Amino acid sequence: MEPMDRETLDRCEAYAEALYARETETQGWIREELEARGLPRIQVSPLEGRLLAVLARSVGARRLLEVGTLGGTSALWLLSLLPEGARLVTLERNPEHARLAREAFRRAGEDGRTELREGDARDALAALREGPPFDLVFVDADKEGYPAYLEAATELLAPGGILLADNTFWEGRVTEEEGGDAATRALRAFNRTLADDPRFEAVIVPVRDGLTVARFRG
Ligand code: SAH
Ligand code: DHB
Ligand code: MG
Fold first, then answer.
1. What is the predicted pLDDT for the residue at 86?
2. Distance from the CA of 74 to the center of ligand 3, in angstroms?
3. Whole-model pTM over 0.90
4. Is residue 141 lining ligand 1, measured as CB closer than 6 Å?
5. Which of 32, 163, 178, 199 is the most buried (most CB within 10 A)?
6. Nearest ligand, CA of residue 97?
């Protein structure tokens, strides 16, 4: 098969999104708010969000953890196919992002299933070790923190749980043998450490900027 050119790939992505991944009213509202406030628009795409949703549902996730909330787009995708009893803890250090996400959860009627912990993720992750394990961990915060978030995931995931991580291609910068800035080196270390860890069965799905999907054997 000839590789598809960029235009064809984009057309196929739009096709798949039209079939399966329409954003909700609240997700459209978040997108507009991020734009209007000049906040970073780095939320998951609808196609990636839908993949998160199907994976969460497939593993029967009941207790979910997200590292990096922004406006709540990915949090709403993660919960979108789950039954009423599911709960998502999401970590965000930026107060303006946290305020936007709380408002989004309220608008979506999801404030009862979400718990936003405001502050540095590293502190929250340390505290969460005292609590029950998670079925799903989605890592999408500062890239320099990814190695620490991987380490935390091994402490927090239940056996059979799933680790998801966004941006693991980092626009292709991870494919350079070495060098780059701190974020690039951290993502490369995250990918290598995960690949070498026999407790995980992992892959990178080439959607958007790369989504790592890893099953934790325990
Ligand atoms: N998952 C979101 C996008 C997250 S963008 C979505 O797809 O909708 C990354 C977010 O992580 C930003 O809001 C940023 O403020 C937050 N963040 C970065 N470093 C953090 C840290 N150390 N602790 C908590 N949040 C952090
Ligand atoms: C950036 C961060 C993200 O989580 C993302 O999905 C895209 C870009 C960034 O910091 O540039
Ligand atoms: Mg991301």
1. 98
2. 9
3. yes
4. yes
5. 163
6. 1
